[in-house]
């Protein structure tokens, strides 16, 4: 039998099966690949492809791609469908936190590779922080990943628009080595084979999505690096063979503008059309990016709570907790188009999200990014919810207000409380638009560390 590889779908089915085996039948340790808890396209796609490529690299250890969110939250990410569908996948195929064995996993029986973050957070951190064997990430290095790792495991933490670009750099040799192989998948209907070009097109779609989104289609000067450009070139080169067979190719033997087409030219024309295939959807970089970002920016109709948890990260600094929600529309838009369409409703939802029984936050923050009238705009709302939280807000503003170009939002319409009071909520327009959550969250955490010492 000719050598083959797994399709993405087949790979996910195999990984899920391995995870769900009774503990006694499992081949331990289980090796997981996991992205950060915001579970954005970058994290979800990196998890999938890194696990796939590592599984196809000697010694061919099965790597389980774990999407770092509960299954129900997949529905909050409509852009994900637009990536999965041309990759021959459905949201159901993904492995989420909900799929982890109910009886729990013995940490000793697991290995973890982190992508798109370099410190585990949430419940996973409690059990598995000292089981990490490798990391590829583009956030600030939190220096918790050991510098000495098992042989052959990466510790790559470096700046780049998208973490996917680092993954592709690292996995290019593997991808190149399997590109000629058709995919084999087995399901209830038996086994089926997919041509090599189509398998690569599926992988390429998953690879391209986060790079295009994170670099605004390679146009963001602040974010795009050479590594991102290389990544898009690599992934598109893998798409090309499938596109050439997807299109109807008409090749006259003697292309010439001087001769009118004759009836005989029909016999020298080859026409290749393809059978139905999900990846046969035409790829155009511009269109793919526009489709994904339009879906990603859809928040109209969502509840405020869903908007706050859709792209959310939580950190603890000593006794204090910080939560930062990223929102892909401005506050004014959210007040008019989402939830119960009111400022009060939004602020109540944020307070509810921050309270003890939900996220138990001392500081809650919301960062918006939008383009009203074509102007790239960032807004930042920070809410200190108790004495230490209020002190942290004060420290943050004093230390970083100027760097971030913080100006009162609509003259301070959303502000309440203040220094020395029980709470302090303050909202700014953030003039330094190059500073995303990647930069602002570490600033807030620094302020919290300092106020925790008070
Ligand atoms: Mn990322």
TrEMBL record:
Region entry Disordered, spans: 245-283
Listed Low complexity bias regions: 245-279
GO molecular function: exopolyphosphatase activity; metal ion binding
Alphabetical keyword list: Hydrolase, Manganese, Metal-binding
Pfam family of the protein (one): DHHA2
Domain DHHA2: 289-448
Required co-factors: Mn(2+)
SUPFAM superfamilies: DHH phosphoesterases
Gene Ontology CC terms, in alphabetical order: cytoplasm
Record InterPro entries: DDH_dom (IPR001667), DHH_sf (IPR038763), DHHA2 (IPR004097), DHHA2_dom_sf (IPR038222)
Name of this chain's protein: DHHA2 domain-containing protein
Record lineage: Eukaryota, Fungi, Dikarya, Ascomycota, Pezizomycotina
């Amino acid at each position: 039998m000719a050598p083959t590889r797994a399709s993405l779908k087949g790979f996910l089915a195999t990984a899920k099966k391995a995870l769900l085996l009774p503990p006694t039948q499992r081949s331990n340790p289980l090796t997981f690949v996991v992205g950060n808890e915001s579970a954005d396209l970058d994290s979800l796609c990196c998890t999938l492809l890194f696990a796939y490529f590592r599984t196809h690299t000697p010694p061919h250890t099965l790597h389980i791609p774990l999407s770092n969110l509960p299954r129900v939250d997949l529905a909050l990410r409509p852009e994900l469908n637009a990536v999965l569908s041309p990759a021959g996948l459905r949201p159901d195929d993904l492995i989420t936190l909900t799929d982890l064995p109910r009886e729990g996993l013995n940490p000793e029986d697991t290995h973890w590779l982190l992508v798109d973050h370099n410190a585990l957070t949430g419940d996973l951190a409690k059990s598995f922080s000292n089981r990490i064997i490798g990391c590829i990430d583009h956030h600030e290095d939190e220096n918790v990943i050991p510098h000495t790792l098992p042989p052959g495991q990466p510790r790559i933490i470096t700046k780049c628009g998208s973490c996917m670009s680092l993954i592709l750099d690292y996995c290019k040799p593997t991808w190149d080595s399997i590109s000629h192989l058709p995919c084999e998948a087995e399901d209830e209907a038996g086994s089926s084979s997919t041509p090599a070009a189509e398998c690569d097109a599926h992988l390429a779609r998953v690879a391209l999505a986060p790079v295009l989104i994170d670099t605004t289609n390679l146009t963001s000067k602040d974010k795009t690096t050479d590594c991102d450009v290389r990544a898009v070139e690599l992934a598109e080169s893998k798409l090309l063979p499938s596109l050439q067979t997807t299109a109807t190719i008409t090749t006259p033997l003697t292309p010439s503008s001087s001769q009118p087409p004759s009836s005989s030219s029909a016999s020298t024309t080859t026409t290749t059309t393809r059978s139905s295939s999900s990846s046969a959807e035409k790829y155009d970089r511009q269109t793919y990016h526009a489709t994904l970002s339009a879906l990603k920016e859809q928040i109209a109709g969502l509840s405020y709570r869903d908007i706050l948890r859709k792209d959310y990260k939580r950190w603890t600094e000593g006794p204090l907790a910080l939560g930062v929600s990223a929102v892909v529309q401005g506050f004014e838009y959210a007040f008019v188009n989402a939830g119960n369409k009111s400022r009060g409703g939004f602020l109540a939802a944020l307070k509810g999200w921050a309270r003890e029984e939900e996220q138990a936050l001392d500081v809650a923050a919301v960062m918006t990014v939008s383009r009203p009238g074509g102007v790239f705009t960032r807004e930042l709302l920070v809410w200190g919810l108790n004495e230490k939280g209020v002190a942290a807000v004060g420290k943050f503003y004093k230390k970083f207000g100027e760097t971030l170009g913080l100006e009162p939002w609509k003259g301070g319409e959303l502000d309440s409380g203040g220094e020395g009071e029980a709470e302090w909520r303050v909202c700014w327009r953030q003039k330094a638009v190059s500073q995303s959550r990647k930069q602002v969250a570490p600033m807030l955490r620094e302020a919290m560390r300092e106020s925790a010492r008070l």
